[in-house]
Amino acid sequence: MGTLNRTPTRPAAVSLDDALSRAEAGDDLSRDDLIAVLSARGSDLDAVLDVAGDLRDHGLREAGRPGIFTYSRKVFVPVTTLCRDRCHYCVFVDTPGQLQRAGKPVFMSPEQVLAVARAGQRQGCKEALLTLGDRPEERWPEARRWLDEHGFASTLDYVAHVARLITAETGMLAHLNPGVMSADELQRLRPTGPSMGMMLETTSRELFETPGQVHYGSPDKDPDVRLRVIEEAGIHRIPFTTGILVGIGETISDRADSLLALRDAHRRHGHLQEIIVQNFRAKPGTAMRDAADAELEEYVAAVAAARLTMGANARIQVPPNLSDPTEFALLVRAGADDWGGVSPVTADHVNPERPWPHLDDLAARTAELGFELRERLTVHPEYIRDAATWLAPELHSAVAALADPVSGLALSTLAATTPDSAARRARGSSFDALVTDAATDPESLADDDWTRLLTAQGADLDAVARAADDVRRYTVGEAISVVVNRNLTTTGLRPSVSAGDLDRGTFTLAEVAEIARDAAGLGASELCAQGIIPIEADAYLELARTVKDAAPTLHLHAFRPQDVWDFASRSGLSIDEAYRELRGAGVDTVPGTGVKVLDDGIRERVAATDLPVDQWLTAIRAAHAAGLRSTSVLFYGHVESAADRVAHLRTLRDLQRETGGFTEFVPIPLPGYGVPLVADRSPIDEHRAMVAVSRLLLSGAISHIQVPWPRLDAASIPVLLRSGADDLGGTLLDGRVLPRTGVEHGRELPLSEAERIARHLLRPLRQRTTDYRDARPAARTGDRTREPR
Question: Most buried residue, 390, 553, 669, 786, by CB count within 10 Å?
Fold first, then answer.
C-alpha cells in the first residue's frame, strides 16, 4: 500500500485565502486551489468549512428547501458477492469455495430478493439498493453455470430482472450499483431503475498499475474505465451517483484530480445527482487490515473540497455509519447535505462492522445541528421534476407514486401492498410453497400455516431453518453480535446501614457502586439489573443513580415490568410516571422479561407470580412511550401449544408496529420442562423450529433473534446461529466483586469463545451495545466540532 500524505503542505504559490475568495464568488477552483483546500488544517480548515457550509446553505435556498438534510430509506440487496476484481480493502466479496463452506448461494434467488424487499416495504422503505461484484461470470465458472441454468445471459441481465420484479411486486424503486457497464448495458438497464451508481474512488493510476497497491489486479478499477462509465451515464441521461474514497493510498493531488474529473463530467451532462465522499475504514481479514483509517481532518477537508468543487447546487453525501456521531458536526460544517441510504431493515453489507444509526437518532442529531431530516427517493427531486428527460417512460408512474408532487422528496408514507392471494394459490399448498411464502410474505400466512412450520420435522424442518437463515443473512447480515455485560439480581439489595454478604448474594448500595466500577473496569458496557427490591421503593431510583455515579459510561439495562409495577404501586405513581422517573434516574433500557407466554391461562398454570398479560402489555407500552427500548421474550417447552406460541409472536409483532421499542426477541426454553411440540422430536429440533419461525414471523418488525446460550448446551449454539439467529446476548461476566445470585450465575461467555463460535461459522463477530449500536469508543474530534452556523 502507498504511503499517505498525513502532513500535507500547501504549494507556496497558492494562497488559501485567494482560493476561498474565488469559491465565495462562485468561480471555478483550479487544481492548485483544490490542493490548498485539501491541505488545510487547524484554523485554515475552519475557514474552509465556513465557506463550504455557506455555499451549501445558499444552494438549499435556491433549491427551495432551506435547512433540509436528506436521506433515502432503503434496503440493501447483495445480489451476489462474487466478483472478478481483487480490491485489497473489501470484505463484501467471496470466492465460490467460501460461499459453499458458509452455505451461501452463488446469486440471491428472486424469492430471496423479494423477501428483503418486502421486509423493507413493511418498514416504509422506498429504495432497493442492488449491489454486487463486477461481472463474476468472467472469473468464476460457478457464476456462469448459475446464470445458464436460470436462463440469463449475464449478471446484468439478472440484475435487470430482479429490479423489475421489485418494483412490480412492492412498488419500491431499484437503485442499480452493478459496477462497470458498457453504453449498451446502461441503456438496457435504464428502464429498470430510476438511478444508478458507481464510485469513481480515485483517478490514481499508481494505485491501479503498481503491484501491491489497492486496485492492482482489479480490471474494473481502471480509472479511465470508470470515468468512461460515468461519461456514458451522462450521455444516456441517467441520474448517477458517484464519489471518491478517501484514505486508500491516494495523494492529495489525486483527490483534486478526481473531484475535477467529476466536475467536468457533470458540466457536460448535468447527471451527477450526488457526490459521495467516503472515508476508508480498515477491515479485519483484508490486505489493508493494518492500515490506518482515514484521518478525520483530511476526510472533512475532502468533504469541503467536494462542495467547493461541485458548487452550491450539488448534493454532497457522507455515509453516517462510517463516522462517529460526535463527528457529524464537522461533516455538516463541511457542506454535506445528504446522509445517503440508511436502512431500518438491512445491514450495510459492504461495511458490516458499521451498523446504521437508528433513524430517530439520526433525525435528532441532524436537528441538533440545525437541519430538518427529510426522506428522498433514490432519484433526487431535480430529476423527478424533469422526468421526461431523465426517467425512462416505464418508471414514470412508479416514481410519481412515491414522490411528493410539490417538493419532489419522498411521500411521508408508503402504503403496503395487500398479499396477492391469487399468487399464493398459484404457488400451491405444498410445504415448499409455504416456506417460500413465510420468507417472502409472512403476513399472508394464517395461524395454521405457522403451526405447520413450527411442527415441521426432517427435511421440512431443514427447509424452514434454511429459509430463516437466508432472511437473517439478507436483512441483518452475517455479523454475530454480543454485548459485554454482567448481571445483578436486585432482590439481594439490603439497607446501607447493614452489611451485605456478596458470597450469599446480598449487597448494599455502596457495594452496588463497587460492582458497577468493577464491571466497567473489566470492559463491560452494560449492567443488567432486575428483581423486586425488598427495601423502600426509592431504592429503585437510588440504585440507578448509584450505578451512573460510579460508572457513568455503563449502560444500565434495568427492571422488569413487575419490578416497575412494584416501584409504581409502593411510590403512589402511575406506571407512566414510574418509567419516566427511572429514566431520569439513569435507566437506559429495560428487560422485557417476567412473562412466559402472553396467555393468562398458561400463566396461572406455570408462572402464577408473573404479571397478568394486560399489565405486562401496559408496562411495555409505557416503557416505550418513555423512550426506553426493551427486549422481548417467549419461554417455551412447557404446557403451551404451537398456536399459543404463534399468538404470542403475533402480539409482539403488532406491539412493535405500534411502538417500535423492541431491540430483540429471545426464545428461551423454560428450565425444568423440555416438553416438545412434536412427540419424540429431539430438543435441538425443538429449538431450531422455534428460532427459525421467530425469524420468519417477526421479519420486518423485530430485527434481532438472540440465542439464549446459558440455557443451552455448547453444541446447540452454532446450530441455532444457522437457523436464523444473529445474536449471542451478553457475556455475563462474573467480575471480581461477586454477588452470587441469579439463575445464570457462574455461566460466562468470554469474548474469545464468542469469536471462536463466529470463526467456526465463517462469520464476523461484532461487539455491540445494549441497543445494538457499535461498541467502539467515541472518536476524538478536537475543538472544531462547534455547531454549523
Answer: 390
Closest by CA position to 486, among listed 460, 461, 514: 514
> How many CB atoms sit inside 10 A of residue 725's CB?
30
Q: Distance (Å, rounded) from C-alpha 187 to C-alpha 168?
A: 20
Residue of 671, 710, 661, 704 whose CA lies nearest to 487: 710
d(CA 75, CA 300): 27
User: What's the rounded Cα separation, in Å, for the pair 517 and 522?
Assistant: 9
Q: How far is CA 310 from CA 35, 304, 307, 535, 593, in A?
A: 15, 10, 5, 65, 53
3-state secondary structure 434-454: HHHHHHHCHHHCCHHHHHHHH
For residues 35-47, give the mean pLDDT: 96
Q: Which residues contact 354 (CB under 8 A, 6 or more apart)?
A: 281, 321, 322, 348, 774
Q: Which residue has the cell 459521495?
A: 276
Cβ distance 495 to 539 under 8 Å?
A: no
Using CA atoms, how far apart are residues 527 and 134, in angstroms rounded to an integer?
45
Determine what percent of the chain falls in helix, strand and coil, rounding each to the nearest 5. 45, 15, 40
Q: What is the amino acid identity at position 202? A: T
Q: Is 338 helix (H, G, I), strand (E, B) or coil?
A: strand
> Do residues 589 and 544 touch, judged by C-beta distance below 8 A?
no
136 in Cβ contact with 93 (< 8 Å): no
The torsion of the CA quartet 686, 692, 698, 703, rounded to 10 degrees, works out to: 120
Question: Does the structure show a pLDDT above 50 at 242?
Answer: yes
* Cell digits of residue 74: 432503503
For 304, counting Cβ atoms within 10 Å of its Cβ (0-12 exposed, 13-18 middle, 19+ buried), the class is: buried
Phi-psi bin for 370: left (phi > 0), alpha (psi -120 to 50), beta? left
DSSP state of 594: S
Write the CA distances from 737 to 206, 513, 516, 556, integer angstroms: 56, 10, 9, 17
Q: What are the beta bridge partners of residue 708?
A: none
Q: Residue 664 phi/psi, 5° resolution?
A: -165, 165
d(CA 108, CA 99): 12
Own/partner long-range contacts of 427-431 (Cβ < 8 Å, ≥24 apart): 431/456, 431/460, 431/463
3-state secondary structure of 172: coil
CA distances from 352 to 324, 709, 763 (A): 15, 23, 10
> Cell numbers of 639, please?
404446557
C-alpha cell at 179: 459496477
Q: Please check whether residue 200 is in contact with residue 264, taking contact to mean a CB–CB distance below 8 angstroms.
A: no
Which tens digits make up the pLDDT trace of 652-679? 999 999 999 999 999 999 987 888 999 9
CA distances 165 to 119, 122, 189, Å, are: 15, 17, 13
- Cβ distance 246 to 278 under 8 Å? yes
- What single DSSP character describes residue 493? B
pLDDT of residue 93: 87
Task: Please count the CA atoms within 13 angstroms of the CA of 29 that sit on its side-chain side.
Answer: 33
Name the DSSP class of 3.
Answer: P
Structural contact between residues 649 and 695, judged by C-beta atoms closer than 8 angstroms: no
The 3 state secondary structure assigned to 173-185 is EEEEECCCCCHHH
Of 358, 484, 345, give the one whose Cα is nearest residue 766: 484
Q: Which residues contact 267 (CB under 8 A, 6 or more apart)?
A: none
Question: pLDDT by residue (tens digit) across 54-106?
Answer: 999 999 999 999 999 999 999 999 999 999 988 888 888 899 999 998 888 99
| Residue 735 main-chain phi, psi, to 5 deg | 80, -175
Rounded CA-CA distance 646/453 in Å is 10
**353 or 183, which is more confident:** 183
User: Going by C-beta distance under 8 Å and a sequence separation of 6 or more, which residues neighbour residue 547?
Assistant: 512, 513, 516, 527, 529, 554, 556, 558, 586
CB atoms closer than 10 angstroms to residue 459? 9
Q: What is the mean pLDDT of residues 579-584?
A: 98
CB 69 within 8 A of CB 371: yes
Cell readout for 50 is 465556513
